[in-house]
Amino acid sequence: MSRATDAGRVAVVGLGLVGGSLTRLLAARGADVVATDTHPGARSDARAVGLRVTDDLAALCATEPDLVVLAVPLRAVRATAAELAPLLAGSDATLSDVGSVKGPVRAAVGAAGLADRYVGAHPMAGTEHSGFAASDAALLDGAPWAVTVAAPGTAAPGEPARLARVLRLVTGPLGGTAAVVTDDRHDEAAALVSHVPHVLATQLLNAVAGAPVRDLALGLAAGSFRDGTRVALTDPARTEAMVTENAAWVAPALRKAVRDLEVVIGALETNGSLHDVFHAADEVRELRAGARARSGGPDEDLPVGGAWTAGLVDDLVARCTAGAVVVRADDDVVRVRAPR
Amino acid sequence: MSRATDAGRVAVVGLGLVGGSLTRLLAARGADVVATDTHPGARSDARAVGLRVTDDLAALCATEPDLVVLAVPLRAVRATAAELAPLLAGSDATLSDVGSVKGPVRAAVGAAGLADRYVGAHPMAGTEHSGFAASDAALLDGAPWAVTVAAPGTAAPGEPARLARVLRLVTGPLGGTAAVVTDDRHDEAAALVSHVPHVLATQLLNAVAGAPVRDLALGLAAGSFRDGTRVALTDPARTEAMVTENAAWVAPALRKAVRDLEVVIGALETNGSLHDVFHAADEVRELRAGARARSGGPDEDLPVGGAWTAGLVDDLVARCTAGAVVVRADDDVVRVRAPR
C-alpha cells in the first residue's frame, strides 16, 4: 500500500495557487512537506495556517529534501533553477515542477545543470484565481497529472527511480492519477486541449470587443459565448506566458485551425456542404457519451521486480501515450488503468 | 400593467424544444395559447400535459389567432410559410418565429407573401436537447429575446402595431426582455456570440479527434477544453443548419478569426509580442467584472402617445442596437433599460 511517507521529504518552491494548494494537501495528508516563497506575505500567510515554511531557498535545501518541486511562474524557472543548483550540489534530491509546459522547463533546469535529476509534472487543475490566498488543498486532491520523462535515448540512469518517487507522491498522498509521457507528447496534447482553447477564447472575446455591434452582441450573448470565452476572462498575462512558452506546439496547431476554418469559410461562401466538418468528431462524441455511463477502464498490475528499470518506464510511456494512467506506484507493483 | 391577455390568442406551430417550452410557459401564465405539430406523438404528449393542441395548421388557423409563432426547424420555415399563407388570407394575424437567424426567415416568409405581417423573434435560450420531451416552461421564463424589424425604409405601415404585440408577449406573460433591432444587426451579433463560437468549438473537438495524441489529450483535458467544446457535443446537424443559414455573417466573422489567428501564429513563430492580442479585450473584461456587481442599467419610460409609430420603432432600434432592452410594453408607455 502507498504510505504518505513514501515520497520522502518534499520541498515546495513557491506558495502561489498551485504551490500553496500542493503544500496544504500534503500537510493535510500527514506528508513531510516544507515550502518557501520570495514574498514575505505568502510565507507569513502559509505559516499562519500551520504550514512549515523557510525564509529562503538555502534554508529550504538545508532541510535535506528528497524531492524539490518548482511551483514558480514559468518565466522564473530558469533563475530559480540557477539559484537552486549550488544548493543541491551535495544532495541526490529529485527535482520536479508543476508547469503547464514541460519541454521548456526541462531546457531551463538543464541550463542550470539539473536535467539529470528532473522529472516533469503538471497537474490538470486550476482556477481563474492566483496567489496563496486562492490556494486550497481540494484543488489538487485527486487531480489527473501528467508526469514527463526525457526523450528516448536521453534519460539519465537514475530516471526510473526518480520517476517512481514522483509517481508515489502523485498516486499516494495527492490521491491523483498520472499519465507518464515524454515532454513532447505532453506539450503537443496540452497545446490541443489547453493552449489553443485559450487562444480561441481570446479571439472570440476580442472579436466581440472590437465589433460595431459590441453592446448588442454582449446583451444577446448566452451559453455558447459564455462557455467559449470563460478562460479568456482570466489573467491575460498568465495566458500569454503559457501560450508563448509552448509556441513550438501551439503555432502548428493554430496553423491547422486556420486551415480547418478556411474549409468552413469556403463551404459557406460557395453553398457547399459542411456535413463532414460537423460530423468529423462523431466517434469522440460517442466515446464521451459512453464514458459518462462507465466508471473507468480495467486495471492492470505491472510487476516492478526489485527496482524500476528503463524498460518499465518505456512500457509506461507507451501505455500512457495511448491514454492509460498510473493509479498506484508501490515498490513491487505499478497499477495502470486503461483508457475509457 | 401588462396583462396576460395583452398578446391576444397565440398559435404556436411546432412543439419541439422551443415551441413546446413556449406553449407550456404561456399556458402556465394563463395566456390564450393553442399549438400544433406535424408529429402525432408530439401532439399527444402535449395534450397529455393539458395543452390545447390542434391536429393541423388549418385547424390551428381556424381558432383565429392574433399571433402565429413559427417554431419549426429553419429548413422547414419556407414550406410551413407557404402552407400557412392561404390559411391566413382572411386574417390580420401577426406572424413571428423563434429562429436563430432572422434575415433568412424574413426572406422565407416573404417568398410566401407574408413579409408585411412578420416580426422576427429569437429567444436567447436553449439546451443541448431537443423535442417536446425536453421542453420546459422554465427554459424561456425571463429569457432575453431579440425582436427584429425590417430594414430601414422597407417596413410595412402595420409594423409598429405588430411589434407592440410581440413586445407585449415577450415582456408580459413570458417575463423576458427584448432587444429591438434590424435582422442584419441581429444576424451579425448572433454570428459573433453564437455561430462562430459553435464553429470554433467544433474545430477544437475535430482537431483533438484527429490527432495522433488523441487519447492522451482527452485524458489530460480539463476545464478549458471542456468549456471550449461543450456546444460541439450537441446535435451537429442542428449546428450545421444554424451556421449555414447565417453564412452571410458567419463567413466574414470567420475570415476575421483567421486573420487574428495568423497574427498570433506570426508572433509565436518570430518570438514577437502577444501583449496586444491578449489585452485587446481588457475593457470588456472590466465591464464584465463590473456588471457582475451591478443590478442593471437605469430604466427610461418612453411615451407611446396613442399608437405605436414608425418614429418610436426607429428610436427603440437605435437604443437597442447600442445595448438597451425593452422591459415593458404597454398601450401608453414602453420602458427601456440602458445597457450595464
UniProtKB/TrEMBL annotation, chains A, B:
Q: Where is the Prephenate/arogenate dehydrogenase domain?
A: 8-299
Q: Which GO terms describe its molecular function?
A: NAD+ binding; prephenate dehydrogenase (NAD+) activity; prephenate dehydrogenase (NADP+) activity
InterPro entries to which the protein is assigned, alphabetical? 6-PGluconate_DH-like_C_sf, NAD(P)-bd_dom_sf, PDH_C, PDH_N, Preph/Arog_dehydrog, Prephen_DH
Q: Which domain of life is it from?
A: Bacteria
Extract the Pfam families matched here: PDH_C, PDH_N
Q: Which UniProt keywords apply?
A: Oxidoreductase
**SUPFAM superfamilies, alphabetically?**
6-phosphogluconate dehydrogenase C-terminal domain-like, NAD(P)-binding Rossmann-fold domains
Q: Which GO terms describe its biological process?
A: tyrosine biosynthetic process
* TM annotation in the entry: none
- Family, per the entry? Belongs to the prephenate/arogenate dehydrogenase family.
Recorded hits in PANTHER family, A to Z, give: PREPHENATE DEHYDROGENASE, PREPHENATE DEHYDROGENASE [NADP(+)]
Annotated protein name in UniProt: Prephenate dehydrogenase
* Native organism: Krasilnikoviella flava
